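Case study: biotin--[biotin carboxyl-carrier protein] ligase.
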Amino acid sequence: MFALAPSALAAGYRLEALTSVGSTNALALERARQGAAGNLWVVAGEQTGGRGRRGRPWSTPPGNLAATLLVTEVSDAAIAATLGFVAGLALGDALAAVVPAAGVSVGLDGGAAGRDRFTLKWPNDVLADGAKLAGILLESGTLEGGRLALAVGIGVNVVSHPQDVPYPATSLAALGARVDAGELFLALSDAWVDNVRRWNGGRGLAAIRQRWLERAAGLGAEVSVRIDGRVARGIFETIDESCRFVIREDDGTRLKIAAGDVHFGAVATARP
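Here is what the predicted structure looks like once written out:
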């Protein structure tokens, strides 16, 4: 069902494909502790113990995509963390490659309609028509000798999406796209090679940041971010050179946020 793109094979990537797994992130980090080198994709069509940010459960029923790339060659944790933005761009490119062929008119680099269909929500979500389609989770572990192992986890709602969540969610099937997890992963493995080359060990982060901003959800709109026990509200201005979320509050203060839960629309503008 799963296979690597020719470009990924040529670049030395490897694949461990499973029908079902507890957590692709956990298995990838386990493989690293067992001595596996980086550039290993761990992929499954079902995930029974997946997690999202802050330990929240992430369901991957059969037919959806759970994919994790093991990275071991980046030693700086701050640089490694920016691979989440590479992952978002790679997934966006993969969706643009396979979904139009499935008969849905989208295009991340096209007109306004295309940009509005698939967007990137800081720091780790991919939205479709404003609803959550995919999530990205980076988890790290320390190997012998203090080396860093990073699991770049990507979960995509391909055939189904959760109904009992406090935010809008969708799937490719709900959008009318006739694409399966194998087709999407093939395109993702190809798009990752292209985007990680742009990133270039962090040296190309400025180009990644600019490309990400071109696809950013809510840019220039009202947002709220829950941080440090309070809710900050303002206009989403940009992400800075370190990929922190920058909002301009009502009093003109520019706030740079490294981590937090972002909300748009009515939730953002609601006042207590």
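For the exam, be able to explain this: The longest helix spans residues 181-199.
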